[in-house]
Specification:
By secondary structure, the protein is an alpha+beta fold. It is 54% helix and 16% strand.
């Protein structure tokens, strides 16, 4: 359902003095024979092109914000128009131009007619084919980075000068691309709510930015190796790796980046997710430590500092959210109850509740099952203390008009329906199974809520599709639409649920 984890966080290797590094005599021995004027010009170009990258990406975000404001305005006007007018027909007439854009660009699969087509090589899972719009966006980002990497390089000059400029350019761009890389990877990415784009989509772009970053880092390293070997020997390169701190820290960082790419492959991620996650975080931290030392006293170190601060802030918010939702007032408890069909209902008694919205999910950790395992689950139902009085042991929750009209209130309990699979879900099921009554209560840690930015309230007719346990994601939307209709706050008049 949700690919909600970091995929790649590779970083760059920067060597050389065009970025403002104090060059040691040993580095000069490697053969960097640029004049001060050439180094200054190259540094200006690198800084300028780094700003181009952030400016272009910022411009794209600005355009998407304008688009989202227009869409929200249209939906708001449509909702107001339809509240007390069941006979109006204006909004039934489709906008053919916008419909064509959605059909052939925004929502269209890249090939044929199937969305989220899985790519397989034998039993290896290679990921999903992006949509047509995602593919065009990714192609534009790749072309932009290739263009900025090679533009302004003195290709007609000496080979040494060209390699030196290419080394510094690709290294700088690799570090600057780490800023959007880490923003896109965060669960608390502010662009998710601002643009109403799901975390899955941002995570897809994050993975491709990771690949761009690592390719630029490898190009940077290869250019430096070729430059040193051209002006010396392989023995000179080996000597620098053994005796020059900038070189050996760069070598370790490069090895870590490549390891991140290998560990983050889709096949390994799907087969051994928890192992991937812990290795990913550990290797990222190691690579950042060596990269920081590698970039000492250079301008890209400031870019790296921005990236580290953003990453640390997002991690702090996640930790603070988990502590706030899980501790105090007796702590959050999870009631595990076996259901037919290899399923388990998990009812979370929240230490600190929130106002639930359809489409929300949370990351759940059960320390007695696995302290270092955190998994996302859609919230199927929410209740407050008054709602629980209507619960019947045989029939479950009995919905009353008061329950429907109180949907916007804070809920003290959240219910999840989890199907038994492998790993964490299997251990959770087995823990409930060991209880003689099929029900057991354990301590739980909750991080969230996330999601819940989609709204169906402005549409007159709503069709909702679900398969199997996926109904847990759709039930809150039905409940929200029924509550909105009862209170006269939305445009929906007909809801069709296909399960």
């Amino acid at each position: 359902m949700h690919n909600l984890f970091l995929s790649t966080l590779p970083v760059a290797v920067l060597v050389g003095n065009a970025l403002g590094t104090n060059v040691s005599p040993m580095m000069r021995k490697g053969g960097h024979q640029e004049t001060p004027a050439q180094r200054a010009a190259a540094a200006v170009d690198n800084t300028l092109f780094a700003r181009y990258t952030l400016t272009v990406l910022g411009g794209i975000v600005f355009l998407l914000i304008i688009f989202r404001v227009v869409i929200h305005t249209v939906r708001y006007i449509r909702t107001l128009t339809c509240l007390n007018n069941d006979t109006q027909r204006y909004f039934r007439t489709p906008n053919l131009a916008y419909g064509a854009v959605k059909q052939h660009l925004l929502y269209a699969p890249l090939f044929r007619r199937r969305h989220l087509r899985e790519l397989h090589f034998g039993w290896f899972h290679l990921g999903y084919v992006p949509t047509r719009f995602q593919s065009l966006f990714l192609a534009a980002v790749i072309i932009m980075n290739i263009t900025l990497s090679v533009t302004g390089i003195e290709w007609n000059g000496t080979r040494a000068a060209a390699l030196s400029h290419l080394r510094n350019r690709t290294g700088t761009l690799s570090v600057i691309n780490m800023i959007p890389l880490v923003v896109l990877a965060g669960r608390n990415n502010p662009l998710i709510s601002l643009l109403s784009i799901s975390f899955d989509n941002f995570n897809l772009v994050h993975r491709w930015f990771g690949r761009i970053v690592v390719l630029q880092a490898l190009a940077h390293s290869l250019a430096e190796v070729l430059n040193v070997v051209d002006q010396g020997k392989w023995s000179t390169m080996r000597y620098l790796f053994h005796n020059n701190e900038m070189y050996w820290t760069g070598l370790v960082a490069t090895a870590a980046f490549v390891a991140i790419i290998l560990v983050s492959s889709s096949a390994l991620r799907h087969a051994f997710y928890e192992t991937f996650l812990h290795l990913h975080i550990a290797i990222v931290i190691i690579s950042l430590i060596f990269l920081w030392k590698h970039l000492e006293n250079t301008l890209p170190q400031k870019y790296l500092l921005v990236m580290v601060l953003l990453w640390a802030a997002e991690r702090f918010i996640r930790l603070a959210t988990l502590v706030y939702r899980s501790f105090g007032r007796g702590g959050t408890k999870a009631e595990l109850e076996l259901l037919p069909g290899d399923a388990c209902r998990v009812t979370l008694k929240m230490a600190r509740p929130w106002v639930f919205r359809p489409g929300q999910y949370a990351f759940i950790t059960v320390p007695s099952v696995g302290l270092w395992t955190s998994h996302p689950f859609s919230i199927a139902w929410s209740n407050n203390s008054a709602d629980e009085k209507n619960q019947d042991s045989e029939k479950g929750y009995q919905i009353t008009p008061e329950d429907i009209l109180s949907i916007s209130q804070e809920k003290t309990s959240m219910s999840l329906i989890i199907r038994r699979r492998t790993g964490f879900t299997n251990k959770l099921f087995e823990k409930a199974e060991r209880s003689s009554s099929g029900i057991t209560t354990v301590a739980a840690l909750v991080e969230g809520p996330y999601g819940g930015h989609a709204s169906l309230q402005s549409y007159g007719t709503v069709m909702i599709f679900a398969g199997g346990v996926g109904i847990t994601h759709q039930v809150p939307f039905v409940r929200d639409l029924v509550a909105g209709y009862a209170s006269g706050t939305l445009a929906a008049r007909k809801v069709i649920l296909v399960w």
